[in-house]
Amino acid sequence: MTIQLPAVGTAAAALLAAAVVALISTPVVKSLAFKVGAVDVPKDNRRMHDHPIPRMGGLAIFFGFILSVLIFQPLTQQLRGMLMGAVIIVILGIFDDIYALPAKPKFLVQIAAALFAVLAGNRIYILSNINIFSSEPYWELGWLSIPISVLWIVGITNAVNLIDGLDGLACGVSTISSMTLLVIALIVSEPDVAILMAALAGACIGFLPYNLNPAKIFMGDTGSTFLGFILATVSIQGLFKFHMIISFAVPFLMLGLPIFDTCFAILRRLAKGQSPMSPDRGHIHHRLIDMGFSQKQAVATLYLISAILGLSAVVLTTSGTEKAMLFLMALCLAGGVAAKIYLGHNVSKEDRPDEPHVPHPTQIAGNDNFFGEEDRSDK
What we know:
There is one protein chain. This protein has helices spanning 5-36, 58-72, 77-99, 103-119, 145-162, 169-187, 191-211, 220-238, 246-254, 256-271, 284-290, 295-318, 321-343, 361-367, and strands at residues 39-40, 53-54, 126-128, 138-140. It has 379 residues and is mainly alpha-helical. It has one domain (5-367). The chain has a two-stranded antiparallel sheet with strand order 1-2. The N and C termini lie far apart (52 Å). 50% of the residues are buried. Mean pLDDT is 80; it is low at 44-49, 346-370 and 372-379.
């Protein structure tokens, strides 16, 4: 596998263009958010900030991404479908950041947006057969490709939204995931996928200076759902179409943190007899905060886990005995960190009446939103 230098140059240009646009447009979006009322106003003593902070910052990420893509990428049918779906997701996010929309209508709109992308050709046509003893190397999905692809896109869209609970967390994790797929796309000679991921990574990088703790602006549902939608859709183009086992494993490594947190949240709530949509304070970033980590330390720890999983995905793609061993070691390390967080801290501050916890403002603002979790105490 040889990386082509022209593709690297184009991807670098796309990344830089998106970063510049996002960096410049974020102050404008910040002012717009105040004007339209997309603002998180502290209304009770549970807030960790003492002044209004605008949401809807994801609009700047969208501007950076879309402009870069239109400059460096030809408009194919697949790309048109993905961009149309992305526009729907962004519009939905804007209204949600302003008006706090109910869960079910949001879920239906997300399905509609995913269908735009899927029917345009962004579809999982085959899946690697994980049964190594089978004579069939992969499964052809046929008509099942449509519902499975929609489920993947909507699931990842909400998974990224779900981890948006600390300043800079979802944006940084999305940057790492984008860079992971960017490297893999360059390795396997997929220049179109590389440009899309470079544009997304650049847009996130341009927005991060305003979103890191202490945040000057939140990305809101506008940003978190947009990032999840693009990552899910592009991963279909770049990974699921291969007949190899990596087509099954790599997307789950690349998006390992949001997928793990979402699955754990569903299982945790079902075990308690709760609805999977009911909000709680059991997410991985909550547990880190309850363990005594500062916001910056918690975010840095989760960045590290995402980077390890991303490295594992790259190593698995390039194969080789030595690299496979490195992949295994990295994966074990990531698993050890996850086990320490989830199993080594059985009692959270939520269960201690003498130690009241203070949820993070972005969590209160509704970003704990798996398929539209309804916890809008700020609205």
